[in-house]
Amino acid sequence: MNLHAMRAIYLFEMARSWRTLLQSLVAPVLSTSLYFVVFGAAIGNRITEIEGISYGAFIVPGLVMLSLLTQSISNASFGIYFPKFTGTIYEILSAPVSHLEMVISYVGAAATKSIVLAAIILLTAEFFVPLHIDHPMWMLTFLILTSITFSLFGFIIGIWADGFEKLQLVPLLIVTPLTFLGGSFYSIDMLPPFWQKVTLLNPVVYLVSGFRWSFYGIADVNVYVSLGMTLFFLLLCALLLARIFKTGYRLKP
User: How far is the CA of 119 from the CAs of 84, 166, 221, in angstroms?
Assistant: First the structure.
């Protein structure tokens, strides 16, 4: 592997975050803080506890997962789309860098930024609610796997998109609604039996459930099922990306 080229792409993508610090870190943290104020304070006064956990603390894993999914997709999709938009993709394509090395660099940078953001949001949450993590290794596992999976998904979107509108299409119309309906702000046990079964068709349910279990030991779905589904999504994205490159899908604008 061309480690020098991979390192250069990775560091360039990481440096882009510092150049757009307001958009990359401040805006997501501010948005999450507003969720705490609205849902944790306003609604939390009416919903005191869920399964023995205060409502404000209960929604923390869901809020982290919401930011993690959207930022992973956004970072990876924009990271590969912007070179296409500016034409600098030709420099990357002409360099001695394989498709695998390109994916590792861009996806690695996107996942790193998302994990850093998730850590900042967790620290921010400490100002609003008392937090404890029962299973820190499980928490890190879900955090890393989810960030990599949705960074891969975002990379696919960046390849597919031929305009800035398409970059926002999937995150806004599909991923964000699925996250809100995936148990981020409630337990699916609170739903009627029929809707509980329907909700299990939502893939985000498994991510949020497993991540919440790592905090409080409570889950809507068995944690091993959640882990299995997370790995399945990761494999699916990897296979789809491999298929895209194998069929000669062009990275050029």
Answer: 31, 29, 24
Q: What DSSP element (H or E) covers 49?
A: strand 49-50
The pair of structure tokens assigned to 72 is 């992973």
Q: Using a cut of 0.85, tell me whether the model's pTM lies above it.
A: yes
- Per-residue pLDDT tens digits for 35-91: 766 665 666 556 667 777 887 788 888 888 888 888 899 888 888 888 777 777 777
d(CA 49, CA 38) in angstroms, rounded, equals: 16
Listed residue (134, 155, 153, 149) closest to 61, CA to CA: 134
Query: How many CA atoms, within 13 angstroms, populate the side-chain half-sphere of residue 137?
Result: 0
Instruction: Name, in order, each residue with C-beta under 8 angstroms of 28's C-beta and a sequence gap of 6 or more.
Output: 67, 70, 71, 117, 121
CB 188 within 8 A of CB 203: no
84 near 252, Cβ under 8 Å? Answer: yes
Could you tell me how many residues make up the chain? Answer: 253
Token pair, residue 155, equals 């990379």
Convert the pLDDT of each residue in 158-217 to its tens digit: 888 777 777 788 878 888 888 888 888 788 888 888 888 888 888 889 999 999 999 988
